[in-house]
Amino acid sequence: MGVSEVSYEESRRKRLEENKKRMEELNLHKLSESLRTAASPKSSPVKKVKPRTPRSPVDLSAVRRSSRFADKPSPNYKEVPIEPLERPKRSYQRRDLLNRVYASDEARVYAVERAEELQSGLETDFPSFVKPMLQSHVTGGFWLGLPVHFCKMHLPKHDEMISLVDEDGNESPVKYLAEKTGLSGGWRGFAIDHELVDGDALVFQLIKPTKFQVYIIKPDQSKDGDEDDGDEDSDASPLDMSAKRIRKKDFHN
Q1: Nearest one of 153, 130, 133 to 144, comparing CA atoms
Q2: Helices marked H in 40-177 — which ranges?
Q3: Residue 213 gets which letter from DSSP?
Q4: Which domains does the chain have, with CATH numbers?
């Protein structure tokens, strides 16, 4: 029994020595040590905290000022809200959209026929056209589109102010938009001042490059005028029946 134990210890010792020699030959001992040192956590250096420097006390004494401004009050930089400017009141009264006047088809056709009759008596040297009024022209958007062909032939190629002259000689400036071929700013005032309503027919006669003579035909007034005139004006021409027509000689004066 004792002999077997000795032989076991002897063989174990020899095995350990052989393993140690092999490790030294393969440098496994140094490699295991390097792995062991790499796996160990490194302690991070503690950051040094700088001590806070106390702030110097603020000097609340008066700021030194020039002698020129010593007697004057210190400036006040407080923002003062500016009161909004009042919008100028328009001289035109808004129309009640509930009280719109809608012309019948008969009245509308009658006004256009009267306008065309008036137009036929005007001087042909001055181009003209008839424009029936719709709700959008007189109570809605207050925009008046003009015939495109007429605008391309006779009106300026760029936006410009033009004048509308009524039968009493009163002029109203309006904005003509060349690209949209229509009247914009100022047309609203002209429509309200002359109480234009749906169904009216207007004759526009271009008497100057930027000036229109405007004749207004109202269906109700036209019918009343026919009844009052009776047979007295039955032999009169359309030009004689229209008041305050522009004749050719008037434009050369």
Answers
A1: 133
A2: 105-120, 135-138, 148-154
A3: E
A4: 100-219 (2.40.330.10)
pLDDT, position 7: 82
Strand ranges (E), 97-238: 128-132, 144-145, 160-165, 171-177, 182-183, 201-208, 211-217
Question: What are the mean pLDDT values of the chain's consecutive 10-residue runs (253 residues total)?
Answer: 70 85 71 69 64 69 60 67 55 49 82 92 91 85 88 93 93 94 91 89 94 90 49 40 42 41
In single-letter form, the type of residue at position 140 comes to G
Between the alpha carbon of residue 91 and those of residues 24, 84, 88, 134, 193, the distances in Å are: 113, 21, 9, 23, 10
Give the list of residues 6+ apart from residue 175 with CB closer than 8 angstroms, or none.
Answer: 159, 161, 183, 184, 185, 186, 187
Task: Outline where 40-161 has alpha helix (H).
Answer: 105-120, 135-138, 148-154
Radius of gyration from C-alpha coordinates of the chain:
51
Please give the model's pTM, rounded to 2 decimal places.
0.52
Q: What percent of the chain has pLDDT over 90?
A: 30
